[in-house]
Specification:
The protein has 257 residues and is of the alpha+beta class. Helix content is 49%, strand content 19%. It is built from 8 helices and 8 strands; from the N terminus they run E-H-H-E-H-H-E-E-H-E-E-H-H-E-E-H. Strand 5 (166-173) and strand 6 form a beta hairpin. The two termini are 26 Å apart. 25% of the residues are buried.
């Protein structure tokens, strides 16, 4: 078992350097994943605007006002059509999966874990089990998953009034699956909140768009994995992702590139 600790004062046991190009790649992948959701929400907002405008046109006696309503209708329809085109153009491709080491992905975000530790005044622990088999994964999207879960944990810790603050990211071999768990001892969630975290645009914390955990669910699905959420209000929240292990890990490793 490898344990790596990131402290809020920056004096950490290990910091794995990251190149700036990786940060840019992660941002680009987040944009590609998020755009269809953003477009969907914009279209949902435009639909009632278009409908109400058409209703008002039939009821408005003033010709000047009807003309303005016609312009609103035309512009709204054109914007909706443009969004439809953009949605098709930005449709994300299926994630390509290649055999890889999940511990390498977790540890490779070292500078990010240090940034989270400093931002939330918390300790971040990586608890990585040794000798894990290779998994079919998409490293870029897995980084998006990890960062989204960590950002959620930081928000939960900031909402906590006082006390020791920790984020623990752990990998385990469960026999027929490999688990990745992100746990914080922050403000926790109620049963209703836990059931709502993957609903598009639901946001427990102010300043969040409510997209992060929705993206997580899609990335998890792309990997054929599953997620469980456990939480106790005022005590902790834990997100555990279970990745099915391939039947023949050694055969998968021979194709690693």
């Amino acid at each position: 078992m490898k344990t790596i600790e990131f402290n809020p004062d920056g004096k950490s046991t290990i910091i794995t350097p990251e190149v700036s190009s990786r940060d840019e790649a992660v941002r680009n992948e987040v944009l590609v994943e998020a755009l269809p959701l953003i477009i969907h929400k914009l279209k949902n907002k435009l639909t009632p605007v278009l409908g109400y405008t058409q209703i008002l046109q039939t009821r408005e006696p003033d010709e000047f006002t009807r003309e303005r309503l016609t312009r609103i209708e035309r512009n709204t329809a054109e914007l909706t059509e443009a969004l439809n085109f953009l949605k098709e153009y930005c449709r994300p491709a299926c994630a390509d999966l290649y055999p890889g080491d999940i511990n390498d992905v977790v540890e490779g975000l070292g500078s990010r874990w240090q940034a989270f530790a400093s931002a939330a005044g918390t300790k971040v622990f990586l608890e990585l089990e040794d000798g894990l088999p290779a998994l079919p994964l998409n490293a870029g999207r897995l980084r998006i998953l990890l960062l989204a879960l960590a950002e959620n944990a930081v928000s939960a810790l900031k909402a906590k009034a006082a006390g020791k603050k920790e984020i623990r990211i752990a990998t385990r071999n469960g026999g027929d699956s490999l688990t990745l768990a992100v746990r914080d001892n922050g403000c926790g969630m109620s049963e209703v909140e836990s059931a709502s975290v993957c609903i598009p645009f639901y946001a427990k914390f102010s300043g969040h768009a409510g997209l992060g955990l929705v993206l997580c669910e899609k990335i998890i699905s792309d990997h054929g994995a599953s997620i469980e959420v456990a939480s106790v209000p005022g005590e902790f929240s834990e997100f555990t992702i279970s990745f099915p292990l391939p039947a023949c890990p050694q055969a998968k490793q021979t194709n690693e590139r």
